[in-house]
Amino acid sequence: MSDQPPSSIIAALLHHAATDPDRPCLQWGSETFSYQTVAGLAAGWAEHFLRQGIHRGDRIGLFLPSSPNFLVAYLGVQMAGAVAVLINTQYRQFELNHILADSEPRMVLCDAAGVTYIGAAAGSVGATLVVTTNEVQRKDAVAWRDEVPKPDQLAMLAYTSGTTGRSKGAMLTHSGLLANSRAVGQAWQWTADDNLLLVLPLFHIHGLGVGVHGTLLAGASISLHPRFVPAETLTALRSGQHTLFFGVPTMYTRLIDAFREHASAAAIANPAPTPLPLRLCVAGSAPLAPQTQLEFQRIFGQRILERYGMTETGMNIGNRYDGERRAGTVGVPFPNQEAQVVDVQTRDVLPDGALGEIQVRGPHVFAGYWRNPDATAEVLQADGWFNTGDLGWRSTDGFYTITGRARELIITGGYNVYPREVEELLLNHPAVAECAVLGVPDPDLGEHVVAVIVPSKPAQPPDPAHLTIYCREHLAAYKRPRTFHIMGALPRNAMGKVQKELLKERLGLL
């Protein structure tokens, strides 16, 4: 193999398999798969795809739970020069019909349980349905001698979460994925000695594009779990076998809850922690409440590193690994990437401290939306700047703060209300475990503010009158929620983002 830098994640995998074949790559329960084995199993899938008539550029849908077989099948898709279509296993008929009709895959992989949900949708677009198990057969490993994908070739279609509308297929190239992994690896000092405890779903860019790709580029290893189970994950984090953990904010709150469930009152009040034996805990995919970060550090002795990314770009901005991790901010741009804040209407670049839309630019940005040039033109400028749709501002020393989605901005009586500001205040109230702030139509003001509360003690929900007084003490009048709704849980997507349109629908607020 060449000593030149790899041209893709696949090239990195094959390099490690050739130069250090016995190095552990993947741990799954009691099984360990070496780099040589993972590369060989992926090559077996690639040869299967080619024998079935798959050509370069053909799409192959992956509707599989997190497992070793998902991982090697995904790598096999890319080895064969095809395009992986990542499909959320929580999706059902409406979403599946849309994604398959949009991507038109030649083939769809699923397990036996998935046939019920995706079989009809696959048939409707003429895709071959391949039913596989979630376990791998080592005898299927072969040596790969074909060419690796070209940097500018399409590697995957990753569909946006659809929290603000119909999901779109983000076109991610091999060079873009590689550039993002290089930036993250440099920023987080990722090395071959690291082991990532991975409980995130592999169908999402967080688990796959950050966790798996970063590991393979560094020649490190993954301990893959099929799902997040708080008590089990906490035990694993304490085992000393892992150096890295990536999670969404909800996972960190659940880990705190798991600690409290089994700890004594004295230990909860004064945990005096032995720090978790990890070198890095990262949070992303949704806002991390400052109080969650502080409480996690108090209990577990670990300062969470919050970062900011999205499906179309991978990772954009992150708090510093070896510097300040400022609560409430997402940090500074990753190496070889840029960010700026622009006026929502004029698109002029704004000075530090001014609130506007965040734009990012760099080799990690996607190539556009699949078969949707109009949507691409709305977000991707000719000079390479990508309009994230997120509102925020930059401090004088370069730290970015996200205040919410542009589409979630509430305009009431001519005043702008940023839901996250109100949500963070409510989360400081001891009776509030989770909350979501919404704007609902108002015949006089245009919109008014509504808050949905998940109580910290379900048997003792907060009195809305007390919450009103609390908000009156801390917020301008136009920012205060007019009504409070109490719910047992907020509807979230697979990555922990609150689905506010679904929440409005359930509450009859549309």
Structure description:
It holds the Pfam family AMP-binding_C. One of its GO terms (biological process) is fatty acid metabolic process. InterPro entries: AMP-bd_C, AMP-bd_C_sf, AMP-binding_CS, AMP-dep_synth/lig_dom, ANL_N_sf. This is Long-chain fatty acid--CoA ligase. With 510 residues, the chain is an alpha/beta fold. Among the domains are: 171 residues, Rossmann fold (3-Layer(aba) Sandwich); 99 residues, ANL, C-terminal domain (GMP Synthetase, Chain A, domain 3, 2-Layer Sandwich). 32% of the residues lie in helices and 24% in strands. It is built from 15 helices and 24 strands. The strands form five sheets. The protein has a nine-stranded mixed β-sheet with strand order 2-1-10-9-11-12-13-14-15. Helix 4 crosses helix 5. The mean pLDDT is 92.
